[in-house]
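Lab channel / #folding
Pinned by the channel admin:
"Please post every new chain as: sequence first, then the structure tokens as a reply. Keep commentary short and put observations after the output so the thread stays searchable."

First post following the new format, from NK:
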Amino acid sequence: MSDITNVKEKVISSLIWKMMERIGTQGVQFVVQLILARLLLPEDYGILAITTIFISIANVFIQTGFTTSIVQKKEIDEEYTSSMFYLMLIIAIILYMVLFLISPIIASFYNEPRITPIIRILGISLIFGAITSVQNAILSRNMQFKKYFYSSILGIIFSGTVGIILAYIGLGVWALVAQQLTNNLIIMIVLCLVVKWRPKWLFSFKKVKELFKYGWKILVASLIDNIYNDIYGLIIGKIYDSKMLGYYNRGKQFPEVIVNNINGSISGVMLSALSNQQDNKEKLKNMVRRSIITSGFIIFPVVVGLAVVAEPLVKILLTEKWGECVPFMQILCFTYAFYLIDTANLQAIKAIGRSDVYLKLEIIKKVFGFSILLISVPFGIKVMLLLQPVYAIISNLINAYPNRKFLDYSIKEQYKDILPSIILSIIMGIIIYPIKYIIHNSVMLLICQIIMGIIIYMLLSYILKFEALRYLINTVKELRNKSISKTKEVNEWVRWIEIKENL
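Reply from TO:
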């Protein structure tokens, strides 16, 4: 078997396990959130959203940048991993102390006293993340996503149960707090059990310097990106109220869950796969192009379809009290549509070790992003959100530009690859949208629009002979044939053993 085939099989297997982990956890989380949304108020979600913004920004220092260097680096040793472990632990403790001290200031700024204890309790999750930072990096480096699947599934099931029970007995926002903290705790415990690596009593300033050399640029870039993404929540929570922030977060949840599931699966596998081929420009281009075409084929019809069915979907799943989140959901669908293309381009840049370019791109993008935000704030929340898709397209063009040189994969080529999926998705949306004027029952409307959307998109894709569809079909066939082949091998071994025993 050729090296190319081995790499392909490993990537596909890793991608399947990563997608199972993302879809499984997010699927369970989605169900849990639907139940909690019926038991809790929008204000509860708004308060939690404010606190988690600060936790997520702090978490960037632990989960991004330095850990990426372990995945990207060709060779690592115990001194390298142990040094990173202790560095992450020290950073986590310092960050927790900072959040602990400033939490009353944040609570006062938003005029919500409950924020103080919530930040102080949820902040403990930073230490949980630091303890498993190296384990996460090792699993990603070796593409052992099967192990991460177990930790995530166990974490979300156990924490979801805790959250629902506490919400049912009337603990409000504290049910959400307990759910998040429990989830992080379970993941930490399971990862420590399934990953054999343990830190040694080693610490090298030389290795730490190597970490900073590559990782600080990724860290700063991720920090800028997180602050930009979270600043909308900070502004909405301050200018309006926690209730409006709750609507915004719930509207964001649906496209975010779908896109992040696919995006997280692809990005987690891509960095490892691309890093293994970082010296082969042609292979890198082919892998990035395949990712863009395939992910575009999947995600564009999903976000267009989600925007169309937003109203009946919210009514059925969340009830009428969440109706105000519908326009948020529809606008954000088109914002998230281009995330997967961004991921493919950025992972390629990280894989070849160009963290300097990654940082420059992030700075350029966010200059545009913050400018657009400042212009839109005076005009209200809907204008703020309507300009987000504009920024998403600008960001997409900026991220794609360097790979014209690095991979010989121009912006024109990239958009030529995804344009068929975009056009076909829009056509599908135009066809299924008028059904709302024929069917007035929300359940029947949702079912009809989804079924019609799938049939139209897949049929036209087949008729027009889309490259992505052929690739997906061939991949499924290969996996099925491989499974059949392994089954035959097992049966042959069983027969051989039986013959030997009879002799």
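NK: The chain is about 85% helix and 0% strand.
TO: also worth noting, The radius of gyration is 24 Å.
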